[in-house]
Design brief:
The chain is an alpha+beta fold and 215 residues long. The chain has one domain. The protein has five helices and six strands. Strands 1, 2, 3, 4, 5 and 6 form a six-stranded mixed beta sheet that branches. Helix 1 (6-23) crosses helix 4 (126-140). The longest helix is centred in the first third of the chain and has 18 residues, at 6-23. It is elongated and about 80 Å long.
Length: 215
């Protein structure tokens, strides 16, 4: 993998996770099993989980890069880059991969932070449900994230917020700050360009069983 595009990688991880859950909604029983525990089942229980499953399977939930201010585009999961910085603690002398000065592959490690914004309407607990669905996907699909270049990743979250300057009154939002290390590679030396090629072929040295294709 040459250069990792972290926003695209994380978008794909979440998109694939959403599709898997929509195709297998019974997994939501595992995610929200807490609602059936003693002390919770009287107010919530399996009927509440079934309500979550119906909402999730019947609702279109796009995962996009950046986002629009249109309040009609909810629920929505959006991803945008917060920071991307070369990790000095992982920098190598010359930034070459290989045998010292003979190395011909450049390499650099970067630490990236991505903001995952979860937006739903203010109705009920939808933003909470969607948060824990994304939370589950990020844990369950760690290996997939690593395959797409997002290594050593962790995340933290905020509680509900509402930016009155950007969001309509009926929109709730919750952020996840996703942090990962990526490695970018590049060819550190240009390839050799052959301008011309001379072939000295001695016909007397060619045996009867050998064929030479001269093009």
């Amino acid at each position: 993998m040459a250069h990792v595009m972290p926003q695209v990688s994380l978008q794909r991880v979440i998109q694939e996770g959403i599709k898997i859950l929509k195709d297998n909604p019974d997994i939501l029983d595992e995610i929200f099993n807490f609602y059936t525990c003693d002390g919770m089942d009287t107010d919530y229980g399996q009927s509440y989980i079934d309500e979550i499953k119906k909402w999730f399977t019947d609702t279109k939930i796009p995962t996009v890069q950046a986002w629009a201010n249109n309040p009609q585009q909810v629920p929505q999961i959006s991803i945008k880059l917060a920071t991307e910085q070369e990790d000095e603690t992982k920098a190598a002398i010359g930034d070459h991969f290989g045998d010292f000065e003979e190395g011909n592959v450049g390499v650099a490690a970067f630490v990236v932070s991505l903001d995952i914004s979860i937006r739903t309407s203010r109705n009920g607990d939808q933003v909470l449900w969607l948060y824990y669905i994304v939370n589950y996907i990020l844990f369950k699909r760690k290996r997939r994230a690593e395959q797409l270049g997002l290594r050593l990743h962790t995340f933290s979250a905020t509680d509900y917020t509402r930016d009155s300057a950007k969001l309509a009154d009926n929109i709730w939002e919750r952020y996840i700050r996703f942090r990962a290390t990526i490695e970018n590679f590049w060819e550190s030396e240009p390839g050799t360009v052959i301008d011309s090629l001379e072939i000295d072929l001695d016909a007397e040295n060619v045996t009867k069983n050998e064929q030479v294709d001269l093009g």
